[in-house]
Amino acid sequence: MAFYDNLDTVMKHFIKKGGFLTAKAGEQVNTMTISWGFVGFVWGRPHFICFVRPQRHTYGIIERADSFTVSVPLGDMENELEICGTKSGRDTDKSQVVRFIPAKSVESPVVEGCGRYFECRINYKDVFDGEALPDFIKTANYKDDFHHMYFGEIVEAY
Length: 158
Ligand SMILES: Cc1cc2nc3c(=O)[nH]c(=O)nc-3n(C[C@H](O)[C@H](O)[C@H](O)COP(=O)(O)O)c2cc1C
Description:
It is a single chain. This protein is α+β, with helices and mostly antiparallel strands. It has a single domain (about 5-155), classed as Roll (Pnp Oxidase, Chain A), CATH 2.30.110.10. The chain is built from four helices and nine strands; from the N terminus they run αββββαβαβββαβ. It has helices at about 5-15, 55-60, 80-85, 135-140; strands at about 20-25, 30-35, 35-40, 45-50, 65-70, 100, 110, 115-125, 150-155. It has a seven-stranded antiparallel β-sheet. Strands 6-7 form a two-stranded antiparallel ribbon. The longest helix has 11 residues, at about 5-15. The chain binds flavin mononucleotide (FMN).
């Protein structure tokens, strides 16, 4: 399957209901709900770009990881999305909320039961520069907790 197949439907679900961003570093694995992200093309390669605030438990893991996965439910996983988007892996074992299963090509697992998967190898990361953001975006979104962004090359889409 090409990474862009049926992308309109996938992104509609992702933006409206969310997807699971999962990262593994060493023995630590965690997932959290995200709904901000881009699927696109850069350096001649397909990428998923996701955005993670530094206070997330996932941040400490993805910073040490070389991959992440995005699992987008196309059916009903609203309860799991709600829990993984409101509880932190610091005090909730999310492997009791969703079932992690091995990915095909990267170390970070995927979440069982989702309709679309992106397995991504991290090629680049950066953090938003607050000075470069317009005030209306800073005021609406930030108190010095600028998102870190991760450019993950999509090595598997299915
Ligand atoms: C629908 C939805 C979308 C979200 N999107 C993002 C996002 O794109 N980036 C982010 O940093 N947090 C996002 N969050 C918040 C995290 O999912 C939430 O803070 C979560 O509890 C973090 O889990 P963790 O501490 O285990 O990493 C979203 C939450 C919801 C409910």
